[in-house]
Design goal:
There is one protein chain. The chain contains 2 helices and 15 strands. By secondary structure, the protein is an alpha+beta fold. It has one domain (25-275). It has a 15-stranded antiparallel beta sheet that branches. Strand 2 (77-83) and strand 3 (86-101) form a beta hairpin. The radius of gyration is 19 Å and the shape is globular.
């Protein structure tokens, strides 16, 4: 548990303090809140990567060449490479410095490459890629529905490595499986992916060390809003090994009322609110 506290106090990007836990209630609160905060941050980072792949990859499968889109941040370039109309790859590049996109911060690039002739299954490789101040490496697989009107896709990040950009950081392993489905356009706009709202269900394992791990599993469908640039609804079960269980509540899913970056955790007989 001490490793959790030391790690989190070093890299947690939140406006909160790390209590020494002199009061017994503070000890209980800190022992749960700190790893819960970090784990939600990491889960959110993996989800941010998935929604980036959807926005700049899946939505450009029918395009060719360098994509020009006034809705894209100026720091992002997207190139769709085809030979005789056969998709070879999609390369999304954020540049060398961190670039703000859909609520996250990214740098480097990733390449989406089809693994079947139908262009429904893909491998994703990362090159000097960073997300929310973590260097990202590992294996990611993408699968999309064969019917474009369904606009559903799933992401499998197997043993993805997330390494905080601090000295002597130990990589954190993220096993992330999530399925997404388009549910609505904000205010019935049909102009851009950035008006879209998706529901999703996830099963996530975060491994900090041999004896320190966290499982996060959907208990209801969660809601991601591109207009809000964040998760705005749904609940997930949180299990912190050797510490305890909790319930993560992202809100009611309303793209107007719940667009506040607030997450509530019910655990250890009380409620904790954090901002992500």
């Amino acid at each position: 548990m001490k490793k959790y506290i030391a790690l989190i106090c070093s890299i947690l990007i939140l406006n909160m303090s790390c209590s020494s836990g002199s009061d017994p209630e503070d000890v209980i609160l800190d022992s749960f809140r700190l790893p819960a905060n970090l784990s939600i941050l990491l889960m959110n980072t993996c989800n941010d990567i998935a929604m980036e792949i959807n926005a700049y990859g899946i939505h450009n499968l029918d395009k060719t060449g360098t994509i020009t889109n006034t809705d894209y941040p100026a720091c992002i370039s997207v190139n769709v490479n085809k030979t005789d109309d056969n998709l070879e790859s999609i390369v999304v590049n954020y540049g060398e410095a961190y670039c703000a996109s859909n609520g996250g911060q990214f740098k480097g690039s990733y390449t989406i490459s089809p693994t079947n002739a139908e262009n429904t299954q893909f491998n994703i490789s990362f090159s000097n890629f960073g997300a929310n101040n973590y260097i990202v490496s590992g294996n990611t697989k993408l699968e999309i529905d064969t019917k474009a009107e369904n606009r559903t896709f799933s992401i499998n990040m197997d043993k993805l490595q997330l390494t905080a950009e601090i000295e002597n950081a130990t990589p954190i392993t993220c096993n992330f499986n999530s399925s997404y489905e388009f549910v609505d356009n904000f205010e019935d706009k049909l102009v851009s992916i950035f008006d879209d709202i998706y529901s999703f269900e996830s099963d996530i394992e975060l491994i900090y060390s041999e004896n320190e791990s966290v499982d996060i599993t959907s208990s209801t469908k969660s809601i991601f809003s591109y207009p809000c640039k964040e998760i705005i609804g749904g609940t997930m079960n949180l299990v912190i090994k050797n510490i305890g269980d909790g319930i993560i509540n992202f809100g009611g899913g309303d793209p107007t009322d719940n667009c506040d970056n607030k997450v509530q955790i019910e655990a250890v007989g009380g409620k904790i609110e954090i901002q992500i």
